[in-house]
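Researcher: Please translate sequence to structure tokens.
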Amino acid sequence: MATGTARQIIRIDEDKCNGCGQCADACAEGALAIIDGKARLVKESYCDGLGACIGECPQGALTIEDRVADAFDEEAVEEHLAHSGRSHAAHDAQPQAVEPLACGCPGTMAETLHPEAARERAGSVCDAPTSQLRNWPVQIHLLPFQAPYYQGAHLLLAADCVGFAHPEFHHDLLHGRTLAVGCPKLDDAGFYVDKLAKILAENDIRSLTVTHMEVPCCFGLERVAEQAVEKSGKQIPVEVVIVGRDGKLKAPADQRAACPHG
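Model: Translation complete:
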């Protein structure tokens, strides 16, 4: 009989796996290894279940499943990484409040923007090319833990490629939402989870919409959102909108933000 508790953990489809090793190289905890030409889970307690490795698999052989497994053991991971000569320092880092740069860079200063006023100045129309951005900064690393624009907000967690791919990003997705931007492939997913969980826990955020590209490396953003909501201890609804490389929305049209002017 299996021991442990029910939790999220990596699942490997050996039929799809070609043994390229990209997932093993990307796993910060050293939970994956190539054995007999296939990716294998070295030890259940090494896998944190966040799924940051999923986007590294070109074959789509990795998913997250809910099953009974040994609990994630950070101390065991540190010992495992020390023996293998790897570092886990990036995952040790806890989210820190952003400190203003010495030059007074405006990129670190929280600011509430008013797209409604911009629309009025542009003339009143939904097709006016006005920005719907309500907050600054927008990058997850730079976002403050608390700000007026979080109160009663609908938060949009967007992969940074989405704004370039979808031509109506401001109208279909950003309208009426506070923005948080990040890249699940290039950045530390663990940091994202901790940072967003603290933002969700300390503010009155009504909903969370995740939008990402229809490519494997982007699906990790969904796991980040789910883990952040769970860690925040709040019941916050999460919706997902996927954008194809052709720029088209793959989710139902009713998830798009409607123009308030009809």
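Researcher: Any highlights?
Model: The longest strand covers residues 205-213.
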